[in-house]
Amino acid sequence: AAREAALRGSHGDLTSAEFDLLWLLARHAGKVLSRNDILNRLRSLDYDGSDRSVDCRIYRLRRKLGDLADSAERIKTIRNVGYLFSPTSW
User: Fold this and answer.
1) d(CA 29, CA 84)
2) What is the per-residue pLDDT for 84?
3) 24 has pLDDT over 90
4) How far apart are the C-alpha atoms of 77 and 79, rounded to whole Å?
5) How far apart are CA 46 and CA 85, in angstroms?
């Protein structure tokens, strides 16, 4: 209800859109969500193949979570499919 996120005791400064994305990914931890799934659930839009807003939000969220390495631990890119939030990363 407070819409707060913390990692290792440190509170994250997330925008509302970043928090919503993190919440969506965490609720579906272990399941791959496509860009279309994400856009549809967060903004009631269909992915048209050119919208990069999901990718930009994923990038900013990864940066704030310290998860930018090629071997990302928390939010994994599943090539040509979507994104996966690792249930064992916390």
Assistant:
1) 7
2) 94
3) yes
4) 6
5) 21
